[in-house]
Specification:
2,3-Dihydroxybiphenyl 1,2-Dioxygenase, domain 1; alpha+beta; six-stranded mixed sheet; four-stranded mixed sheet; 10 strands
Length: about 120
Amino acid sequence: MLNEGDVIATVAVKDVDAAKQFYGGTLGLKLADETPAGLMYESGSTKLLVYPSEFAGSNKATYAGWRVTDVEGTVAELKGKGVKFEQYDNLPGTTREGDIHSMDQWKGAWFKDPDGNIFALGNM
């Protein structure tokens, strides 16, 4: 049943034009489709639907995460584009050096979009 279909991450935004600049321009995601219902971006073999909603930014947890091979390089590249990274010092078993959190072999970082939606990137 559901295991035969693709999962598409969805995120609510208040300002579609600002979101278009952030997701397409800053993050470099490829815009696959634009409709009144929202913006569909491609990232690897997955998709991210960005849609307008008055409830944008109300989630306090991570919406989606990207698996990257070079966490430090990705963080540096995004910081160069103005992305600010979150720093969490209350994650059990995790240490932090600058913007990068580590646990055993895992390294990752979190950032927010213009509406405050939380995203992650990590090496696993």
